[in-house]
């Protein structure tokens, strides 16, 4: 199958939610300016910053969208709502992007019209070198293997993900926006459902801050937020077992029993 001509390629938006992230954001925007393929739209969601995050974004040519409701779920959703591209890529201000990040994402969605979401792993660049590889592998195992088993699909990781806009519109009115105690990326993937075409690409690798490993308290909080997100979605849409049945093409067991 021939690759589509440049004029036929999908338009791609990038969304970055920020709050007092000016230093990290400047570096992230520099990486985006150095991409082998430039994004068609760059949106920075200012979630009530008291620093010059918005000014940094404007100086880099980004469109700044304000979101007064505090928390990543509200900020990320506001950015997705504002995006006009066919594909919405998402990273965080502290994400360190390889030069071909946009190109890989766009090529993946160009090549697979049924693909709804894409994600990849990260390496924690702020940890001691002797621990970085082990910590990154441990986090990936828990997120993509453990999380995948719990939701019967591929979890999306907000530091390194992309979503077809049509998929976002399908669940935009159902995702959690007001509760900052929910993992927005995990909630989004669970709302898309076990049959959504979500893919993990090990080559779509970024750098990120290993905040999970900064303290025991940070680790406990992130695990607690993940479990809260799982439980909310299990209660609304069925347990992990029910999700695996639906993924395999079976019926919704809750309706069968009712």
List the helices and strands and how they pair.
Elements: E1 12-18, H1 22-33, E2 41-46, H2 53-59, E3 63-66, H3 72-82, E4 87-90, H4 101-111, E5 117-119, E6 122-124, H5 129-151, E7 161-164, H6 165-171, H7 184-192, E8 198-200, E9 206-208, H8 216-237, H9 240-247, H10 253-257
Parallel strand pairs: 1-2, 1-4, 2-3, 5-8, 6-9
Antiparallel strand pairs: 4-7, 5-7
Keywords summarizing the entry:
258 residues, alpha/beta, 7-stranded mixed sheet, two-stranded parallel ribbon, 45% helix
What's this, in brief?
By secondary structure, this protein is of the alpha/beta class. It contains ten helices and nine strands.
What does this structure look like?
This protein is α/β, with parallel strands linked by helices. It has ten helices and nine strands. It has helices at about 20-35, 55-60, 70-80, 100-110, 130-150, 165-170, 185-190, 215-235, 240-245, 255; strands at about 10-20, 40-45, 65, 85-90, 115-120, 120-125, 160-165, 200, 205-210. The protein has a seven-stranded mixed beta sheet, with helices on both faces. The chain has a two-stranded parallel ribbon with strand order 6-9. β1, α1 (about 20-35) and β2 (about 40-45) form a beta-alpha-beta unit. The termini are far apart. The relative contact order is 0.14. Residues about 1-5 have low confidence and may be disordered.
């Amino acid at each position: 199958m021939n690759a589509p001509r440049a004029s036929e390629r999908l338009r791609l938006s990038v969304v970055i939610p920020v709050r007092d992230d000016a230093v990290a954001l400047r570096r992230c925007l520099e990486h985006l300016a150095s991409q082998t393929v430039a994004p068609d739209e760059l949106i920075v969601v200012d979630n009530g910053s008291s620093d010059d995050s918005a000014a940094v974004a404007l100086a880099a040519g980004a469109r700044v969208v304000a979101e007064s409701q505090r928390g990543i779920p509200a900020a990320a959703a506001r950015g997705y709502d504002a995006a006009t591209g066919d594909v919405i890529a998402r990273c965080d201000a502290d994400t360190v992007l390889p030069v071909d990040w946009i190109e890989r994402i766009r090529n993946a969605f160009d090549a697979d019209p049924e693909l709804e979401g894409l994600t990849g792993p990260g390496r924690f660049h702020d940890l001691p070198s002797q621990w970085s590889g082990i910590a990154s592998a441990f986090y990936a195992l828990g997120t993509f293997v453990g999380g995948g088993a719990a939701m019967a699909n591929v979890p999306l990781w907000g530091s390194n993900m992309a979503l077809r806009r049509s998929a976002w519109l399908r669940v935009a009115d159902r995702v959690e926006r007001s509760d900052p105690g929910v993992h927005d990326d995990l909630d989004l993937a669970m709302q898309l459902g076990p049959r959504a075409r979500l893919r993990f690409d090990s080559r779509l690798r970024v750098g990120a801050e290993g905040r999970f490993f900064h303290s025991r308290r940070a680790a406990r909080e992130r695990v607690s937020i993940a479990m809260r997100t799982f439980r909310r979605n299990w209660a609304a849409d069925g347990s992990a077992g029910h999700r695996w049945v639906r993924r395999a093409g079976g019926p919704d067991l809750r309706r069968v029993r009712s």
